[in-house]
């Protein structure tokens, strides 16, 4: 056995459930979905618990956009989920569907019904990716999705928070989430209310800065004794007496 053959067998095998290969269409997975799921099994075998879309794309002929779209679908319909520590993909949902024989309605796989008519959610992801200058990770996609579904923030409100983060040059989801939660605390629910709230904060900051400058001007100069120094004046042409 030559070295290449030894390496081939040393890499081991990936166990793929036969029922998955036999019934993946019945539970609502497409051929492309199946390939990504198999890759997740393979990465898990290699101790890569949370592969990026770039890594998965490198092993397939799918673009990163396609990989992210598929991962989003798998997450949305509970085929996969994140682990408790958000550091791995959990495929137990897929196994439950296979064991339970649960079939997903194909019509529900196309998009989120609350946003499907205008493709709002997809455009929201694209807006974030454009402002961040990179592709979003699956975890970031999940976070934005939860803002819309779990927290019930409107897409316009999320974009307004994103714009505020861009203006502050702080491009991360944690900062944007703090903005959204602050608005929720203040019962800000619309884009117009958020913009008014931002304007109010800017005006308050401007007023505070102005008062600080005025207070600085009113503050008397510190006494250093220099004001008691008298400079003798002499007329031009006056000669010094000897």
From TrEMBL:
Residues 125-197 form the DnaB/C C-terminal domain. Residues 16-99 form the DnaD N-terminal domain. It holds the Pfam family DnaD_N. Residues 195-218 have a biased composition (Basic and acidic residues). Residues 195-242 are annotated as: Disordered. It comes from the Bacteria. SUPFAM superfamilies: DnaD domain-like (SSF158499). Belongs to the DnaB/DnaD family. This is DNA replication protein DnaD. It comes from Oenococcus oeni (strain ATCC BAA-331 / PSU-1). The lineage of its organism: Bacteria, Bacillati, Bacillota, Bacilli, Lactobacillales.
């Amino acid at each position: 056995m030559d070295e290449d053959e030894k390496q081939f067998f040393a890499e081991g095998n990936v166990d793929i459930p036969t029922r998955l290969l036999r019934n993946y269409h019945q539970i609502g997975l497409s051929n492309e979905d199946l390939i990504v799921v198999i890759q997740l099994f393979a990465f898990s075998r290699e101790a890569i618990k949370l592969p990026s879309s770039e890594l998965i794309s490198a092993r397939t002929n799918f673009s990163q956009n396609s990989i992210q779209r598929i991962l989003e679908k798998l997450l949305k319909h509970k085929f996969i989920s994140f682990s408790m520590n958000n550091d791995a993909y959990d495929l137990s949902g897929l196994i439950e569907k296979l064991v339970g024989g649960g079939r997903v309605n194909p019509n529900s796989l196309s998009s989120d019904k609350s946003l499907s008519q205008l493709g709002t959610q997809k455009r929201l992801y694209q807006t974030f990716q454009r402002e961040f200058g990179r592709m979003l990770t699956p975890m970031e996609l999940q976070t934005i999705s939860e803002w819309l579904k779990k927290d019930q923030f409107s897409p316009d409100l999320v974009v307004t928070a994103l714009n505020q983060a861009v203006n502050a040059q702080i491009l991360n989801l944690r900062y944007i989430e703090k903005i959204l939660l602050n608005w929720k605390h203040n019962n800000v629910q619309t884009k117009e209310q958020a913009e008014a709230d931002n304007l109010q904060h800017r005006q308050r900051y401007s007023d505070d800065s102005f008062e600080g400058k005025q207070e600085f001007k009113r503050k008397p100069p510190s006494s250093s004794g220099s004001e008691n120094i008298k400079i003798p004046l002499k007329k031009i042409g006056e000669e010094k007496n000897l």
